[in-house]
């Protein structure tokens, strides 16, 4: 049944935001709130995303991100609607994706158990690196064969396509952890740890290959970046956590606990500072590692000091922020980035072949790599192969990098720009196909293929 009051409230919020901008004394703010302005477009897109989520609830277990992305695709590709609503510019979309990535990394880090990661270090590392490497090699080879890409651009495409979507896999992994599904085999902990490491690995690899492609093939100045990002990210995250805890900025023993919103806001603020600083330094992978290390250390310290309430309150606030605001805005923005009119039949056909063959290689790699996890049977390993399918956030955030660099260095109609456009279209088409399909597979097969934690002798779980 249609919720008239909820719809009226959302429309009222959109109108209020736009009117607030239109009545501003600053011209740029007034332009942003006018029809076609960035605030107007984001507000309308967010309202459409929220309303589209209702359709997913009518078709369980369809994830809400499916309809949210479809809403964005329609807003971008229906000519009349696109003209009336306006297009989300690149800066606004980049900011939304950065905010979402910060929240995803914070939630994953706070929910992670450092002891469990140490116990499963080998399994986590194998699960993160083996499937991504398999897909990177396959996609790179096919990119060179089908699109005639040079080696650096082909490997940039490979690393880009191999990055798993944290926005798609982390939230259901947290839900699996809460429900105890697959806990005996450590499925949720393995997904959380391996997906984050997978993302960092692919971001660093893509950054190095994209920089080599942009510099014309000279990689001597970039070889040092990968180990530097790893070391600085790990040590910097630990140091930031110690500073935040010892300075009394976050909840600590011996003083009244902060509200969950306060702790969560401080953590998110620090995470966003790290991510934006890393972006300016072209060290996205190191920034992501630093954020995760920071949040994991904070969570471990809170558990050790008996501040489980502070941890639970901060996580609850972040979950609410994700479900009610960030996720609807992120996925509709990702949908709006998919310009179907720009895709040619030739490029789309070859891109589909790359997506299918690369995804198959990744699934096989994930199935065999998950054998390194103790307690994982065939059902759990098959589920991990399905869970390793979706791509979204990293592809949407980085897909245009090779193209933009090529246009800036060589011009719009240069061969390098045409190659960058093929990378862009392939990555965005991958998002359109794998994100909804992967999310649906996780939601549908999790209760069928995973079992709840086995009760102990005292009846606890």
How does this model look, in words?
It is a single chain. The protein has 461 residues and is mainly alpha-helical. It folds into 2 domains: 4-85, no CATH class; 90-449, Up-down Bundle (Na+/H+ antiporter like fold). It has 20 helices and no strands. The longest helix is centred in the last third of the chain and has 35 residues, at 415-449. The chain is globular.
Q: What is the H-and-E element order?
A: HHHHHHHHHHHHHHHHHHHH
Beginning-to-end CA distance, first to last residue? 38 Å
Named CATH architecture of the largest domain: Up-down Bundle
Approximate shape? globular
Q: Helix- and strand-based class?
A: mainly alpha
Mean pLDDT: 84
Percent helix? over 70%
* Biggest pleated-sheet summary: none
Strand percent estimate? under 5%
Here the CATH topology of the largest domain equals Na+/H+ antiporter like fold
Are there runs of 5+ residues with pLDDT below 50, and where? 457-461
Reading off the top of the CATH hierarchy, the class of the largest domain is best stated as: Mainly Alpha
For the secondary structure, the number of strands is: 0
């Amino acid at each position: 049944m249609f919720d008239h009051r909820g719809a009226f409230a959302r429309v009222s919020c959109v109108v209020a935001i736009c009117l607030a901008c239109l009545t501003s004394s600053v011209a740029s703010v007034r332009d942003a709130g006018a029809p076609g302005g960035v605030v107007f477009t984001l507000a309308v897109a967010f309202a459409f995303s929220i309303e589209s989520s209702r359709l997913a609830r009518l078709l369980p277990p369809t994830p809400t991100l499916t309809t949210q992305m479809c809403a964005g695709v329609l807003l971008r590709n229906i000519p009349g609607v696109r003209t009336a609503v306006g297009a989300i510019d690149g800066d606004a979309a980049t900011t939304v994706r950065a905010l979402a990535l910060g929240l995803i990394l914070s939630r994953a880090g706070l929910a992670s158990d450092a002891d469990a990661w140490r116990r499963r270090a080998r399994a986590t590392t194998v699960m993160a690196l083996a499937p991504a490497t398999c897909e990177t090699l396959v996609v790179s080879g096919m990119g060179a064969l089908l699109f005639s890409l040079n080696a650096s651009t082909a490997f940039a495409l490979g690393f880009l396509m191999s990055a798993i979507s944290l926005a798609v896999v982390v939230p259901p992994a947290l839900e699996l952890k809460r429900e105890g599904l697959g806990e005996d085999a450590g499925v949720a902990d393995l997904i959380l740890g391996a997906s984050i490491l997978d993302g960092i690995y692919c971001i660093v690899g893509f950054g190095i290959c994209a920089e080599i492609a942009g510099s014309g093939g000279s990689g001597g100045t970039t070889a040092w970046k990968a180990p530097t990002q790893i070391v600085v990210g790990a040590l910097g995250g630990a140091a930031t956590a110690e500073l935040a805890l010892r300075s009394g900025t976050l909840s600590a023993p011996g003083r009244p606990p902060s509200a969950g919103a306060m702790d969560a806001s401080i953590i998110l603020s620090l995470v966003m500072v790290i991510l934006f600083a890393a972006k300016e330094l072209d060290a996205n992978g190191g920034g992501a590692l630093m954020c995760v290390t920071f949040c994991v250390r904070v969570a471990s310290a809170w558990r050790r000091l008996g501040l489980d309430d502070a941890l639970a309150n901060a996580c609850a606030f972040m979950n609410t922020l994700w479900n009610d605001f960030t996720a609807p805005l992120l996925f509709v923005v990702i949908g709006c980035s998919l310009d179907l009119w720009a895709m040619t039949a030739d490029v789309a056909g070859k891109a589909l072949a790359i997506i299918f063959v690369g995804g198959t290689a990744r699934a096989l790699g994930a199935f065999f790599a998950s054998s390194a996890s103790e307690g994982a049977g065939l059902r759990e390993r098959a589920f991990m192969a399905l869970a390793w399918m979706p791509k979204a956030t990293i592809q949407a955030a980085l897909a245009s990098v090779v193209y933009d660099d090529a246009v800036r260095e060589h011009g719009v109609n240069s061969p390098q720009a045409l190659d960058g456009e093929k990378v862009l279209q392939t990555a965005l088409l991958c998002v359109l196909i794998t994100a909804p399909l992967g999310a649906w597979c996780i939601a549908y097969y999790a209760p069928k293929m995973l079992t709840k934690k086995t009760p102990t002798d005292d009846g606890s779980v």
